[in-house]
């Protein structure tokens, strides 16, 4: 009788140990990394190559939202000389300054089900806004002329984000940018044209 009671007490005493090994505490599990800060380059036939600063975060199991910004600035001068009929030389010069700021927002859908957040193949749909400021002055027009424009570009992307260890990633993509044709047609309408685009970004997940 005593041996049976001791065995029963031993079984009850080991239950917490067994339960602890079969049902681990999940409240202290490491949270997923659902945010990423990125630096990269974007290239297209329409806008050229621009540096980008981006931020992406998850909205759900397959969805994320990315915002990014780019800046481009350039200044250059042109000069030329003309020889007159009396063999005198007349020189002309002009100065051109351009500044361009671009911001974009993009919704992404990740196809994989069992990969970490912000890793894997994705398709993206976005909208880009570009503000351009240009100033031109010359010897014949020293006061100069200023032009400003605002352009919207729908975007389509197909890409993949590669995990580089636990924290870093590489975002590579190709796609299409929709742009209005430059100039004015006789009908008064400017149709949309699709131009290829590609780029990459190095990111840090947290």
What does this structure look like?
- It is a single chain.
- With 206 residues, the protein is mainly β.
- It has one helix at residues 2-22; strands spanning 35-44, 48-58, 63-83, 89-110, 120-138, 145-164, 168-180, 192-205.
- An 8-stranded antiparallel beta barrel has the order 1-2-3-4-5-6-7-8.
Keywords:
8-stranded antiparallel beta barrel, mainly beta, 1 helix, 206 residues, elongated
List the helices and strands and how they pair.
Layout: H1 2-22, E1 35-44, E2 48-58, E3 63-83, E4 89-110, E5 120-138, E6 145-164, E7 168-180, E8 192-205
Antiparallel strand pairs: 1-2, 1-8, 2-3, 3-4, 4-5, 5-6, 6-7, 7-8
Q: Approximately how much helix is present in the residues?
A: 10-25%
- The SS-based structural class is mainly beta
Runs with pLDDT <50, length 5+? Answer: 1-30
Rg from C-alpha positions? 30 Å
Q: What's the average pLDDT?
A: 81
- The helix/strand order is HEEEEEEEE
């Amino acid at each position: 009788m005593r041996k049976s009671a001791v065995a029963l007490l031993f079984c009850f005493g080991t239950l917490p140990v067994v339960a602890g090994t079969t049902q681990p505490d999940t409240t202290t599990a490491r949270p997923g990394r659902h945010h990423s800060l990125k630096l990269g380059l974007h290239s297209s036939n329409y806008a050229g190559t621009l540096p980008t600063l981006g931020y992406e975060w998850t909205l759900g199991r397959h969805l994320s939202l990315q915002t990014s910004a780019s800046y481009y600035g350039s200044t250059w001068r042109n000069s030329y000389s003309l020889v007159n009929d009396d063999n005198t030389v007349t020189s002309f010069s002009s100065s051109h300054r351009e500044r361009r700021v671009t911001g974009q927002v993009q919704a992404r859908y990740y196809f994989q089900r069992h990969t970490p957040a912000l890793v894997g193949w994705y398709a993206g749909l976005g909208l880009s806004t570009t503000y351009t400021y240009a100033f031109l002055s010359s010897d014949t027009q020293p006061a100069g002329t200023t032009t400003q424009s605002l352009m919207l570009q729908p975007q389509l992307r197909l890409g993949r984000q590669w995990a580089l260890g636990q924290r870093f990633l590489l975002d590579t993509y190709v796609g299409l940018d929709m742009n209005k044709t430059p100039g004015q047609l006789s009908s008064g309408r400017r149709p949309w044209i699709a131009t290829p685009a590609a780029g990459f970004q190095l990111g840090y997940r947290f």
